[in-house]
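Please produce the structure of this protein holding calcium ion.
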Amino acid sequence: MTQSDRLVFSKEVEEPKPSGKSPWRVLIADDDAEIHAVTKLALGDLMLDERPIQFFHAYSCDETIEVLRTEPNIAMVLLDVVMECDDAGLKAVRMIREELGNDEVRIVLRTGQPGYAPEEQVITEYDINDYKTKTDLTRNKLLTTVVSALRSYRQIRTITQSRQGLEKIIHAAANLMEQHSIIAFSEGVVTQLASMLGMSPEGLLCVRTQEREHPDDLLVLGAAGHYAGAIKHSVGALEKPDIERSIRECIEKKQHIFLDHATVFYIEGKGHCAAAYLENHRVLDEIDHQMLEIFLANISVGFENVNLFEELRAAAYRDPLTGLPNRQEFTRLLQESIDINRDEVYAICDVSHFSDVNETLGQDVGNMLLKAIGDRFSEAFGERVIVARIGADVFGLIGSRKDLTPERVRQICRESFMAGEDRIPVVMTSGFTQKHHAKSGLDILKQGYIALKTAKLHRLEGYAYFHPDMEEETARRLDLVRRLGADFRAEKLQVWFQPQVNLKTREIIGFEALLRWPQADGSFIPPDVFIPLAEYSGLVVEIGAWVLEESCRSLQELSSVCGQELRMAVNVSIPQFRTLDFPDQVERILTQYHLGPGRLELEITESIVMDDPAMVIEILKRLRERGVGVAVDDFGVGFSSLNYIQRLPLNKLKIDRSFVQNSTTKNGRVIIETIARMGHQLELATIAEGIETEEQLQTFRELNVQEGQGYLFAKPTPLPKLLELLSESGCSIENH
Ligand code: C2E
Ligand code: CA
Ligand code: CA
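Below is the modeled complex.
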C-alpha cells in the first residue's frame, strides 16, 4: 500500500450502527492491518451509554496526527508504539499533546514487544491511559481498557465543555446586556443562541402582542440570517405556516419544541414570554441542553432589564421638571420632522430675564414659573404642536404653519403666569424657522437660535423668522464683536463730545459723550451698529465703564478750559445697569475726578426702562440718592411707558431726533408740544437733540424747551479738537 492509498483508507469513515445518539469516535493507529481488523472485530458490538463506536484508521505517526488534526472529537487512540520506526508511537504521543494541544483524547499504547515499554515518565507526562502488550489484549481486556478510556474521555469533555459553555453564556449574556433596545436585544438572543450552539444564525424571536387590534398576533422582534427581513412584522408575513405553528405551540405549552431541522426555545419573562426559533444543523447533545437552560434563564432577566432600560431611556428623553421632551428628544423630533418631510414650523422661545426671577424670587418660584409656562403651552396648543423644554429657560415648539405662529405664542403668554403665590408677567422672545436647507435636526436648532438671537438683538416685536442670510449675518456679527473686543483692548476706541447748549443763550452747558470706533481706512463703524453687538455680547459693560471714566476725565479738562461747572451726559446700556454695583462704580469715578454728582447725567433709553422695570427703578433710586441725574433718551419713540416714566426718579426727557426733524410741520409741532408739556407736568426738564436749523431752534424756544444739541451748534468732536475750538472761541459756540 502506498502512503496516499493508506491515507485515503485511513480517512474513510465507517458507518456507525444506526442510533439516535452520536457515536464514540475511536482511532486505531497501527502499521499492522491485521490489528485494525482484529480490534474492530473485538469492539464492533460495543455500546456505551447507548452510543456505538465509529472507527478511524492510521498506519503511521504522520497519519495519526493527520486524523486527529482533521477529525473533531476523537475520543481515544489505540496507538502502536512501533510503526515506521521504533518509537513512532511515542513521537505521535508527544505531537498529539504538544503540537496539536489535544489534551482530551485518551491514549492507550500497545506494543508487540514487551521490551519496548516506554518509561514511566512518558506515561505520566503525556497523560497516557494505559500501556498494554498486544498479547495482553484479549477481547475482554481490550473492552475494559476501551470502556474505561471512553468514560474518562466523557468526563474530561464534560468538564471542558461546561467550562467553555459557561464562557459562552457569560459572553452571550454580557453582549446582550449592552443591547438597550428590545429589537437589538431580541436580535442578539438569536445570534448568541446560534453562536453558543455552534450553528449558523438563522432564526427569529417572537413575542405575542397584547394589542387590542391584533390579539394573539406573533410579532417578530429580532431575526438573523435569511429571516432578518421579518423584524417588526407579524410571523404570518413570513408565509411559513409550519414555523408559525411551532412557535405558537412553544408559547402555548411553555416549553421548548425540538423539530428535525429546528428548535423553538421557550423564553420565560415576567409579563412577557417569547419564543426563539432557530434552524438546527446538528443534533443537540446533553451539554447543549444544559447550556441552553442556563442561557435562557439569563435571558429572562435580560428581558426585564431591557424593559427597565426602555423606561430609563424614556426618562433620558424627558425634562423631569416639566415632563416635556428635553433638548435631546427635541432634536430627534426635529430630525424626524425633516426626514418625513413634513412642512412644519419650528420655534425656539426664550423667557426674557428669567435669571432675575430666579435671583429675586428664588429658584423654587423660577421652577414653578417654567412649569406653568410648559403647562400653558401644552394646554393651549394641545396635540397639534409639540412642546419641549430645551434649555433652562428655553422652550422648543414644532407645529404646522397654521398652528404655530408668533401671534399665537404672544397670545398664549399675554396673561401673566402663576408661580406659587406670585403672579409673574413673562416676555417671550422667539426665533422661528422652517426647513430651508436643513439636513439635520441640529441644523434646525441652529437656525432657530440664530433667529432668536436676531430677535433679541433687534428688539423687534419679540420674534424673528430665520432667513438663510442670517447665517452669514451671524458670522459677520461674530467677527465684528471679536474685532471690537480686540480694538477695545488695544485702546483704539475713542470718545467724542457733542456740546449741549442753553437754547435761549446758546451758552454751552455740557456735553454728550459719544463712542467712536475708527477703522484702519479712516472710516468709522457707527455706534448704532456696534453698540447693540456690544450689549448683546456683554462687552458693553467693560467698554461702558471705560467711556464713563474717559468722559469724567475729559470733563475735568473741558471745565478747566471754560472755567465753569459743565455737565457730562453719558449713554448707559442695560447690561451696565445689571451689574449691581453700577451706582457704586459711578460714585467711585466721580470721586476720583473730583466731580460733584450733579455734573453727571446718565442717558437711558425708554426700552431700558421697559426691559426690566423693577431692577431699573432700584438702580435709579440708588443713583438719585447719590445725586446723579438721569435723562430718558429718545423719548417718545416707545411711548408705551408713560405709566412707568411717571413713577421713575428721573430728571429730564430728551426729545428724539425724529420729532425734531418734523418740528416745523404742523403735526410734528403738535407732538413736540405734547412732549414738552408732559415734561412740565412731570416736573422734568426737556432737551431737544438733533437740532440742525435755525427754524428748528426757533420752534423749541417757542415751546419752552430749555436745552438742545445738534449740528447747528456743534458736531460730536474729538477731545483735543474740542479743547482747541473752545479755547479759541472763549467757550462760545455762536460761531459754529
Ligand atoms: P443717541 O444717544 O441718540 O445719540 C445722538 C446721536 O445723534 C449721535 O449719533 C449723534 O452723533 C447724532 N447727532 C447729534 N446731533 C445731530 C444732528 O444735528 N443731526 C443728526 N442727523 N444727528 C445728530 P451717534 O454718535 O452715531 O450715536 C448713535 C447712538 O449710539 C446714540 O444715540 C447712542 O444710543 C449710542 N451710543 C453712542 N455712544 C454710546 C456710548 O458710549 N454708550 C452707549 N451705551 N451708547 C452709545
Ligand atoms: Ca444719548
Ligand atoms: Ca437720542
